[in-house]
């Protein structure tokens, strides 16, 4: 395996800046890796045929002495929920097969402007509805740790691409855990920024009041570097915050070297029971907390009585908003059209949506239509929005006592493909710890905490901070990452099985 | 009973009390759309734009696109709310109205639902005899227009029988304010008149504010008229119908009258009124049933998650309030005094809905009397013949220009009427038409004198009669000269020349 | 608490509202699945009281506006780039049964 693909984005960027490696070489190395392993992993739905050109352009500009962004020349995988002008954007759905956007998502445009090289579009659950990437219309992505297991979802493609060394960095989107839960099951890092911290413009909407775009990587610093590129105010997204954000990369570097854990108050939620969590997940979580405590962190038990309503509220708000957001896929302006001989446009729309949407999408669209329909609104959607208020209050109370909250990122390690596909409710419970973060709009990060003893699969720990305190998560995340790396002696991913040629 | 049986209007009013309600949509003339930076087809810069050339991603619901609110549209909406006497909500918000239709790019309309920007107002409506009627306003809310469908392949170009339809999203996202009245009681036999007067009042208000071109024939102003009847003495309101597609003030009046007569006939025969939307047909002067209201009208409203509340400051509201133009009633009092018209003449202009046109024509240099004459007679006659609004035929500035030519003696009144027809037919400026049609007054005295001599030769006794004091005898000569000149002479000048001749 | 019984008729009606032509088999399957899901999420109405405000946006903002200035527009080619069918610079759809709202 080429050494280039093993480098973190930060290290690769340093070599690019020093002229030790060209972007052409780096990009080619990753394209080669994709060619070698993606037949097994299936992280990509589309591989760019212009990546090398873009890389050559960066090399030329660098040679000409142009001052480039820190990540210039580094390859980037892009979740297919983000629209791109040079590659199809399908959101994992058959209804958008071959769809070409006339504009780039803001995060993609900013990545290109910073010199990152889009490598391809990554697989996902259809319209980001799912926790396993099994709901992709284009077939599942497989977990690089065990090809019979799910890579998480909805952003399983982005997480698997990074974990399989097919890309050093990826863009994801997180509506209820779709960045953090895949990070958890693949031994990678994923960050869901404060709602409004990163533009949603060009992210094919699932649930507008929950969706947030964020970075996916193998190290905390790499996520911070990408977050610096994609974040900040965008006038095209009315919900985008106008805050001036600090450098997240600086925060991560400070965290990795400094003493940030000393005196840090870490909240652990009393109501999240150990039962229901896989033993190895709980153990890994407790061990990580102990490591933090040993460095001077103070573990504080906090109460979040309304978290138990989070999943229920989420599965009302998300389907409701999604049922409306997905109405645009109607066969008139773009996407699939199913002919209905002699049929009216209504027939064509209904047949197209039946043929073009998968089971999970239909399930949620029907559920959301129900939740919004006359007579049910107050009991369902209205109540769910009130639960959001209660969960925000829980967070407010907690953050009056602690600096960050820690939870396991998900209840179990990667389950087997097909294991939960016929049990939507079980699937939904996967996101019990990540969902409240989206409901409240606060930032959350998942970093690897180790392997579960019983199955040897990765486990993640999630840190949550108050809204707008994304930098705090990079500081704490980098500190914990550095400690654990010292314990392990090598990155967690070094323990992953060798893919591709070695098999 | 025949489907279209009508009861005599007076009889209907004897038996039933009409209750009205209106929903008027006003297209704002902002530079850009409600939620995107695409050019607004309701702005004069964009008239006649080719299909799908005024489209941003959100207007056609492209994946990933997001709406952002146009600040000017919000200010216009607040101004309109204030002009309607409404309270402005300290915080209002947008909602999604979900329904599938091909002219709706996102398959939901961004509108306002339970928290409109303006609520609880009233508008003073002056009826033809000058009495004032107070129409209560329930709310005015912001929303976006839909795209335009063209039905092809059917016999009539209507939706029924069409083989396929074409969709143009230029109009999708045009800023709208929808003004909704409360039920209007007490209009009685003047209900049809009130309907037209109400729409005219809204038109005057938005034109006064400068926030819409308010051209009904272009769809800038659209009125849905709700009509219900209740038997005399009954408390409970009757079932209402909502008549759509009424795009002139005259049609609003006719449609309301028609619905009163139609519903009365049904009720009197023991039938029931179906709650439905009905369509107005300009050609037949009838309404026909549209879609019955059903549980398919479950719009699943919910707060628009892509947009934030609109919370105008008190300072902004007061600033906009102080910038409001004078209210129409005050304006009418002022114009009447300025123009010096008799009551009946002024009320005629008001009733014809031509106040703004006359005002603009006077502003462009014409005398009030001449401006009134043009709009009230010739232009109204032509508009009536074509079944359109007078304002749609010609611009006030062009009328003033035409009048200048009359006053300069270049055109006689009769010639000027021909020029007007030419202008309406799009033949160019008055001067271009005069040149092209060869309409200028013959002002060459030599030619006139020659014609007079010829006429006098045919009627030798005329000069004698004039000299004897029978000045009216000149008329015969003047008539003959005008005929010889094919009307292109100034009759007053001819008369002068004849009298000069007699005095010699 | 069971707010509502999910019936095949209701699911069929929801399919009509959502413009998804559901087969009988799909209606049956969805009826079963939605019943289970709704039973589990209906508890949101238990915990809230009338005095709790609804949160529509996680980070409260207001008055986010755009200046009334013309921005980038799509070309007609871009507008029609993905059209399943088009004619005369417009999107083409088959006959429409219902009327405008
Ligand atoms: Mg309406
Ligand atoms: Zn409306």
TrEMBL record, chain A:
The keyword Protein biosynthesis applies. It catalyses: L-glutamyl-tRNA(Gln) + L-glutamine + ATP + H2O = L-glutaminyl-tRNA(Gln) + L-glutamate + ADP + phosphate + H(+). Keywords: ATP-binding, Ligase, Nucleotide-binding, Protein biosynthesis, Transferase. One of its GO terms (biological process) is translation. GO terms for molecular function: ATP binding; glutaminyl-tRNA synthase (glutamine-hydrolyzing) activity; transferase activity. The active site is at 79 (charge relay system), 154 (charge relay system), 178 (acyl-ester intermediate). HAMAP family: GatA (MF_00120). Allows the formation of correctly charged Gln-tRNA(Gln) through the transamidation of misacylated Glu-tRNA(Gln) in organisms which lack glutaminyl-tRNA synthetase. The reaction takes place in the presence of glutamine and ATP through an activated gamma-phospho-Glu-tRNA(Gln). Heterotrimer of A, B and C subunits. This is Glutamyl-tRNA(Gln) amidotransferase subunit A. It comes from Microbacterium telephonicum. The gene is gatA.
UniProtKB/TrEMBL annotation, chain B:
GO terms for biological process: glutaminyl-tRNAGln biosynthesis via transamidation; translation. It catalyses: L-aspartyl-tRNA(Asn) + L-glutamine + ATP + H2O = L-asparaginyl-tRNA(Asn) + L-glutamate + ADP + phosphate + 2 H(+); L-glutamyl-tRNA(Gln) + L-glutamine + ATP + H2O = L-glutaminyl-tRNA(Gln) + L-glutamate + ADP + phosphate + H(+). GO terms for molecular function: asparaginyl-tRNA synthase (glutamine-hydrolyzing) activity; ATP binding; glutaminyl-tRNA synthase (glutamine-hydrolyzing) activity; transferase activity. Keywords: ATP-binding, Ligase, Nucleotide-binding, Protein biosynthesis, Transferase. Residues 356-502 form the Asn/Gln amidotransferase domain. SUPFAM superfamilies: GatB/YqeY motif, Glutamine synthetase/guanido kinase. Residues 277-296 are annotated as: Disordered. Gene3D superfamilies: 1.10.10.410. InterPro entries: Asn/Gln-tRNA_amidoTrfase_suB/E, Asn/Gln-tRNA_Trfase_suB/E_cat, Asn/Gln_amidotransferase, Asn/Gln_tRNA_amidoTrase-B-like, GatB, GatB_Yqey_C_2, Gln-tRNA_amidoTrfase_suB_CS, Gln_synth/guanido_kin_cat_dom. SMART domains: GatB_Yqey (SM00845). Its EC number is 6.3.5.-. Heterotrimer of A, B and C subunits. Belongs to the GatB/GatE family. GatB subfamily. Allows the formation of correctly charged Asn-tRNA(Asn) or Gln-tRNA(Gln) through the transamidation of misacylated Asp-tRNA(Asn) or Glu-tRNA(Gln) in organisms which lack either or both of asparaginyl-tRNA or glutaminyl-tRNA synthetases. The reaction takes place in the presence of glutamine and ATP through an activated phospho-Asp-tRNA(Asn) or phospho-Glu-tRNA(Gln). This is Aspartyl/glutamyl-tRNA(Asn/Gln) amidotransferase subunit B. It comes from Microbacterium telephonicum. The lineage of its organism: Bacteria, Bacillati, Actinomycetota, Actinomycetes, Micrococcales.
TrEMBL record, chain C:
One of its GO terms (molecular function) is ATP binding. PANTHER family: GLUTAMYL-TRNA(GLN) AMIDOTRANSFERASE SUBUNIT C, MITOCHONDRIAL. Belongs to the GatC family. It is an enzyme of class 6 (ligase). Keywords: ATP-binding, Ligase, Nucleotide-binding, Protein biosynthesis, Transferase. GO terms for biological process: glutaminyl-tRNAGln biosynthesis via transamidation; regulation of translational fidelity; translation. Allows the formation of correctly charged Asn-tRNA(Asn) or Gln-tRNA(Gln) through the transamidation of misacylated Asp-tRNA(Asn) or Glu-tRNA(Gln) in organisms which lack either or both of asparaginyl-tRNA or glutaminyl-tRNA synthetases. The reaction takes place in the presence of glutamine and ATP through an activated phospho-Asp-tRNA(Asn) or phospho-Glu-tRNA(Gln). The keyword Cytoplasm does not apply. Heterotrimer of A, B and C subunits. The keyword Mitochondrion does not apply. Its EC number is 6.3.5.-. This is Aspartyl/glutamyl-tRNA(Asn/Gln) amidotransferase subunit C. It comes from Microbacterium telephonicum. It catalyses: L-aspartyl-tRNA(Asn) + L-glutamine + ATP + H2O = L-asparaginyl-tRNA(Asn) + L-glutamate + ADP + phosphate + 2 H(+); L-glutamyl-tRNA(Gln) + L-glutamine + ATP + H2O = L-glutaminyl-tRNA(Gln) + L-glutamate + ADP + phosphate + H(+). Pfam families: GatC.
């Amino acid at each position: 395996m080429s050494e280039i693909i093993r480098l973190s984005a930060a290290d690769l960027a340093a070599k690019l800046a020093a002229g030790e490696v060209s972007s052409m070489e780096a990009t080619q190395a990753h394209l080669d890796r994709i060619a070698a392993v993606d037949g097994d992993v299936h992280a990509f739905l589309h591989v760019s045929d212009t990546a090398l050109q873009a890389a050559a352009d960066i090399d030329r500009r660098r040679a000409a002495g142009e001052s480039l962004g820190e990540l210039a020349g580094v390859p980037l995988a892009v979740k297919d929920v983000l629209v791109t002008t040079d590659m199809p954007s399908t959101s994992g759905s058959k209804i958008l097969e071959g769809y070409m956007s006339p504009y780039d998502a803001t995060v993609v445009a900013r990545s290109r402007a910073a010199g990152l090289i889009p490598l391809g579009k990554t697989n996902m659950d259809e319209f980001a509805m799912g926790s396993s990437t099994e709901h992709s219309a284009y077939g599942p992505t497989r977990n690089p740790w065990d090809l019979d297991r799910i890579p998480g979802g909805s952003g399983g493609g982005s997480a698997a691409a990074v974990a399989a060394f097919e890309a050093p960095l990826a863009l994801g989107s997180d509506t209820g855990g779709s960045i953090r839960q895949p990070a958890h099951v693949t031994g990678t890092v994923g960050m869901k920024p404060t709602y409004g911290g990163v533009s949603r413009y060009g992210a094919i909407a699932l649930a507008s009041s929950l969706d947030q775009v964020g970075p996916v990587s193998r190290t905390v610093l790499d996520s911070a570097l990408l977050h610096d590129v994609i974040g900040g105010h965008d006038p095209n997204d009315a919900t985008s915050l106008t805050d001036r954000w600090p450098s997240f990369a600086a925060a991560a570097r400070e965290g990795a070297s400094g003493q940030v854990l000393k005196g840090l108050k870490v909240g652990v939620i009393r109501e999240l029971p150990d039962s229901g969590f896989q033993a190895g997940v709980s153990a890994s979580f407790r061990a990580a907390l102990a490591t933090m405590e040993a460095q001077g962190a103070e573990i504080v038990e906090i109460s979040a009585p309304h978290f138990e309503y989070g999943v229920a509220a989420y599965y009302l708000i998300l389907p409701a908003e999604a049922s409306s957001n997905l109405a645009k896929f109607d066969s008139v302006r773009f996407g699939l059209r199913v002919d209905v001989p002699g049929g009216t446009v209504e027939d064509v729309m209904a047949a197209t949506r039946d043929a073009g949407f998968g089971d999970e999408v239909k399930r949620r669209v029907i559920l959301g239509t129900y939740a919004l329909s006359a007579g049910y609104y107050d009991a369902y959607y209205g109540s769910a929005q009130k639960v959001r208020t209660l969960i925000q209050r829980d967070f407010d109370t907690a953050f009056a006592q602690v600096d960050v909250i820690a939870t396991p990122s998900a209840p179990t390690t990667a389950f087997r493909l097909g294991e939960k596909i016929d049990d939507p409710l079980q699937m939904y419970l996967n996101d019990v710890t990540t969902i409240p973060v989206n409901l409240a709009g606060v930032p959350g990060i998942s970093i690897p905490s180790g392997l579960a003893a019983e199955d040897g699969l990765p486990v993640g720990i999630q840190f949550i901070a108050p809204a707008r305190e994304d930098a705090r998560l990079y500081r704490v995340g980098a500190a914990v990452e550095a400690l654990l790396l010292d314990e392990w002696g090598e990155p967690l991913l070094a323990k992953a099985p060798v893919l591709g040629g070695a098999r | 009973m025949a489907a279209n049986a009508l009861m005599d209007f007076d009889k209907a009013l004897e038996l039933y009390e009409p209750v009205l309600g209106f929903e008027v949509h006003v297209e704002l003339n902002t530079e850009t759309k409600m939620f995107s930076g695409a050019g607004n087809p309701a702005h004069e810069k964009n008239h006649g734009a080719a299909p799908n050339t005024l489209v941003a991603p959100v207007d056609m619901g492209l994946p990933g696109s997001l709406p952002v609110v146009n600040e000017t549209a919000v200010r216009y909406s607040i101004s309109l709310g204030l002009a309607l006497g409404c309270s402005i909500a300290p915080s209002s918000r947008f909602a999604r109205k979900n329904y599938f239709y091909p002219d709706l790019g996102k398959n939901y309309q961004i509108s306002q639902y339970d928290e409109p920007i303006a609520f609880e107002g009233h508008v003073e409506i002056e009826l033809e005899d000058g009495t004032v009627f107070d129409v209560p306003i329930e709310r005015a809310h912001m929303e976006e227009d839909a795209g335009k469908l063209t039905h092809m392949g059917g016999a009539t170009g209507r939706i029924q029988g069409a083989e396929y339809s074409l969709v143009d999203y230029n109009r999708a996202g045009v800023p709208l304010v929808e003004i909704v009245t409360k039920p209007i009681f007490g209009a009685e036999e003047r209900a049809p008149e009130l309907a037209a007067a109400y729409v005219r009042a809204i038109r005057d208000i938005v034109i006064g504010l400068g926030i819409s071109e308010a051209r009904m024939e272009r769809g800038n102003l659209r009125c849905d008229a709700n009509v219900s009847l209740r038997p005399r003495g009954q408390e409970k309101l009757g079932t209402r119908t909502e008549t759509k597609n009424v795009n002139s003030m005259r049609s609003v009046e006719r449609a309301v009258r028609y619905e009163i007569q139609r519903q009365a006939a049904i009720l009197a025969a023991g039938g029931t009124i179906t709650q439905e939307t009905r369509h107005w047909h300009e050609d037949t002067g009838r309404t026909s049933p549209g879609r019955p209201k059903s549980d398919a009208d479950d719009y699943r409203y919910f707060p628009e998650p892509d947009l934030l509340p609109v919370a105008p400051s008190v300072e902004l509201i007061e600033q906009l309030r102080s910038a409001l133009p004078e209210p129409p009633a005050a304006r009418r009092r002022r114009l009447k005094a300025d123009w010096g018209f008799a009551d009946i003449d002024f009320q005629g202009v008001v009733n014809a809905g031509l106040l703004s046109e006359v005002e603009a024509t006077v502003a462009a240099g014409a005398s009030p009397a001449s401006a009134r004459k043009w709009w009230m007679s010739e232009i109204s006659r032509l508009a009536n013949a074509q079944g359109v609004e007078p304002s749609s035929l010609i611009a006030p500035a062009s009328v003033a220009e035409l009048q200048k030519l009359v006053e300069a003696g270049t055109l006689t009144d009769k010639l000027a009427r021909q020029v007007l027809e030419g202008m309406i037919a799009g033949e160019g400026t008055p001067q271009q038409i005069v040149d092209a049609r060869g309409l200028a007054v013959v002002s060459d005295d030599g030619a006139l004198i020659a014609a007079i001599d010829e006429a006098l030769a045919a009627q030798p006794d005329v000069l004698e009669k004039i000299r004897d004091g029978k000045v009216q005898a000149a008329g015969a000569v003047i008539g003959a000269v005008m005929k010889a000149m094919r009307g292109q002479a100034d009759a007053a000048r001819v008369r002068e020349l004849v009298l000069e001749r007699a005095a010699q | 608490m069971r707010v509502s019984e999910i019936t095949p008729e209701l699911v069929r009606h929801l399919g009509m509202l959502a413009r998804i032509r559901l087969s009988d088999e799909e209606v049956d399957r969805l009826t079963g699945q939605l019943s289970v899901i709704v039973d589990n999420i209906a508890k949101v109405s238990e915990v809230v009281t009338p005095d709790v405000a609804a949160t529509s946006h996680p980070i409260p903002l207001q008055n986010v506006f755009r200046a009334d200035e013309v921005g980038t527009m799509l070309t007609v080619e871009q507008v029609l780039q993905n059209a399943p069918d088009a004619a005369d610079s417009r999107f083409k759809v088959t006959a429409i049964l219902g009327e405008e709202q």
